[in-house]
Amino acid sequence: MKSSFVLIMAGLCGASGVAFADGDPAAGGDASGGAPATPAAPAATTTAAPAAGGDWMQLDQRPLLIPTGKLAIDAIVPFFAVHTIEIDPTTGQESDSTDLSIGASVAVNYGVNDKLEVGGGYAFNLKDFDATGTLYGHGAYLVSHTDKMDIGVAAALSFDLHSSGDVDLAAGAWIRYRLAPKLTLFTGQPAMIPDLPVGGFGGFIGPTGYQFTANLNNGNAVELGIPVGVGYQATPNVWVYGQTLLANLVLNGGGDNAFIFSDFIPITLGAWYSMDKLDVGASFGDDLKNAGDFYAITLNARYWVK
User: Fold this and answer.
1) Are 63 and 114 spatial neighbours (Cβ–Cβ below 8 Å)?
2) How far apart are CA 193 and CA 280, in angstroms?
3) What span, in angstroms and rounded, lies between the C-alpha atoms of 138 and 123?
4) Cβ neighbours of residue 289 under 8 Å, at least 6 residues apart?
5) Which residues contact residue 195 at a Cβ distance below 8 angstroms, ignoring those fewer than 6 apart?
6) Is 8 left (phi over 0), alpha (psi -120 to 50) or beta?
């Protein structure tokens, strides 16, 4: 249970443009065909100062990946609550309890160039403190960018340092499609926020950065999740989103396939507030089919070192 929690918690982890105004070119000869007039001096080129906020403040207007040379530090604190009901076999009386787990994750992410970002981090338990945790790293590559759509691919590798020693691979596509100027449809990472190196049903609390997850050494469980979400830029500084999981397919290992409505109704609602050097976010996730049995509240922060 501990290693599973830490793996899940491990994930629960564009500069402004410069405008140039060019002057009109000088006229050539006169209309009569005489000698050309003395060329006028070219108009001075002016440079407008970048806007104070501009597109950088708007998460859905930032590039999908961290821009070249930018370095960010992420901090993530998830709270997981598991509610259980037990029946005493002797008396038949019911008793319920809620088990609360609190974790923490810190990571560093860097934009190698405008098409590639890399990063890594460490996750551990805060409640019942245990410094032995999970070490993980990731990379993401921008496949294409247009005014309507961004497509990237990403992969993450995590190492559980507990006795189980699980080694897990997560991979997936980051797709962001603009339905309207402030409205986006997404799967995977929808904006420049900390990625989630976990996939499948274990990562239904989103945004889920990876659709595919595979254990590489202990049982070789393989799962494929299909998350989809909608994001809305409510104000230049506030971005809100909702996400669900359409299906979770167990390709190898124990467990059953799960489909939305028939087996679960997972939903995550969240918001981010962006500033020049700091972005902060929070989310709440639950399975509405079994509301309250398992839910999570996650607090996030990303500080831009440069």
Assistant:
1) yes
2) 9
3) 14
4) 261, 263, 264, 265
5) 11, 13, 109, 119, 138, 140, 154, 156, 189, 209, 210
6) alpha
Q: Compute the mean pLDDT over every residue in the chain, rounded to the nearest whole number.
A: 82
Two tokens at 89? Answer: 């076999």
SS3 11: helix
Residues, the chain: 306
Closest of 150, 149, 169, 148 to residue 158, by C-alpha: 169
Residue 174 to residue 184: CA distance in whole angstroms? 13
Q: Quick: pLDDT tens for 30-65.
A: 434 444 444 444 444 433 333 334 578 999 999 999
- Asked whether the beta carbons of 170 and 155 are under 8 A apart, the reply is yes
Token pair of 130 as six digits: 């245990």
Facing residues of 156 across strands? Answer: 138, 170
Side chain identity at residue 25, one-letter code: P
- Type of residue numbered 233: Q
Nearest to 26 by CA among 50, 13, 43, 10: 43
What single letter denotes the amino acid at residue 201? F
Q: pLDDT for 250-274, tens place per residue?
A: 999 888 999 999 999 999 999 999 9
- pTM, two decimals, is 0.78
State the pLDDT confidence band at 108, using cuts at 50, 70 and 90: very high
